[in-house]
Design goal:
Strand content: 5-15%
Number of helices: 17
Distance between the termini: 75 Å
CATH architecture of the largest domain: 3-Layer(aba) Sandwich
Order of helices and strands: HHHHHEEHHHHHHEHEHEEHEHHHEE
Number of domains: 2
Strand order of the largest sheet: 5-4-3-6-7-9-8
CATH topology of the largest domain: Rossmann fold
Shape: globular
Largest sheet: 7 strands, mixed
CATH superfamily of the largest domain: Vaccinia Virus protein VP39
Helix content: 40-55%
């Protein structure tokens, strides 16, 4: 009480309350950044997964077994204990409820953010133009694939599977199969066959390793190829009934809509009997997001900083029409952000 009285005499009660209030608001922003950075690092290293599996861990023992810096790991655990993410009993840490969701539904969001971390580490350079995205600054394609797969399997992939089932498609060509999570989901139906395409050698190698673990080589194949030049592989996919593009086409819009129109037109010519299932997250007005600041604020920022274009639903429909595709079915779930277009 004496300390408070001294501060009031020095600065006045009104100023003290104002400073406290402003610092609390700033702390919310700062803590989000710091806590996310710590959680990301511990997810990537594997500590939180091991903690989930073992139930509790000593930072000292874990660090020594993995060749890590004990003092650094101990400091990170102590910080997450202070924020309520971890529990601590007799020097051993375990997951609190806050950490359990980080390893479940929200895991994909952390991986996706990690994929784009080079952008945020170079914001000043991007702002001044001393570095350019796609040249000196690039996202991690492997982490982007993992994050997309983890997020997709929660809601979007089951919706896509239902559309495919409703139309009795049995052979699928996934233009960006990533970590194969979607094709694995489809493969639960024994009659389904899938072809996956990846451009990144690292992602394709990872996908093939997962495919081997699942022992699904007989029904799923993975190819490293450029989706804008599939003529050499066209014969491999001659039995394809539906071509899938999940959160993919917008990544190539920076070079103009004609590039996407050309791609879809060429695929239609190569596979005249195939349908198209295209999934995209339409643009949302910033004024609406200000009223309800969902994760789409970050989604739009990631894309604008990485030279990806987010279009409105009507703009996508116009592109499909220009490519000569007719809309068979459209489903929109604004609460989760995706729109699903089945075209022929």
């Amino acid at each position: 009480m004496r300390e408070i009285a001294d501060l009031v005499r020095l600065f006045g009660l009104r100023k003290l309350l104002r400073v406290k209030r402003h610092h609390r608001k700033a702390q919310t922003l700062l803590r989000g950044y710091v806590a996310t950075s710590v959680i990301q690092a511990l997810l990537e290293e594997g500590f939180l997964d091991c903690l989930k599996q073992e139930g509790s861990l000593s930072p000292k023992d874990y660090a020594e077994s993995k060749g890590l810096e004990t003092s650094v790991l101990a400091a990170m655990c102590e910080y997450l204990y202070g924020t309520g993410v971890l529990r601590r009993v007799n020097g051993r840490y375990s997951l609190d409820e806050k950490a359990k969701w980080a390893l479940a539904e929200a895991r994909g969001s952390f991986n996706l953010l990690s994929a784009y971390r080079p952008i945020f580490e170079n914001l000043s350079n991007l702002l001044t133009g001393t570095k350019k995205y796609g040249r000196e600054v690039k996202r991690s394609e492997l982490l982007a694939a993992k994050g997309s797969g983890e997020l997709g399997r929660l809601i979007p992939f089951p919706i896509m599977r239902q559309i495919i089932r409703n139309h009795s498609f049995r052979t699928v060509l996934d233009l960006d199969s990533g970590d194969l999570e979607f094709l694995f989901l489809l493969a639960e139906d024994k009659e389904m066959r899938g072809y996956g395409i990846g451009e990144s050698p690292e992602v394709v190698e990872y996908a093939r390793s997962r495919l081997k673990e699942r022992e699904l080589e007989g029904r799923i194949s993975v190819f490293q190829a450029d989706i804008f030049d599939l003529k050499p592989q066209a014969q491999e996919f001659k039995d394809v009934e539906v071509i899938v593009a999940y959160d993919l086409l917008h990544e190539h819009l920076a070079k103009g809509e004609d590039k996407i129109v050309g791609l879809l037109s060429e695929l239609k010519g190569l596979f005249p009997g195939a349908s198209f299932l295209i999934v995209e997250s339409p643009k949302r007005p910033t004024s609406d997001l200000r009223k309800s600041p969902t994760i789409f604020l970050e989604h739009h920022l990631f894309h604008k900083l990485s030279e990806q274009t987010v279009l409105s639903l009507d703009e996508w429909l116009a592109i499909f029409a220009r490519a000569g595709l007719s809309l068979v079915e459209k489903r929109a779930f604004h609460i989760i952000g995706h729109s699903y277009f089945l075209l022929k």
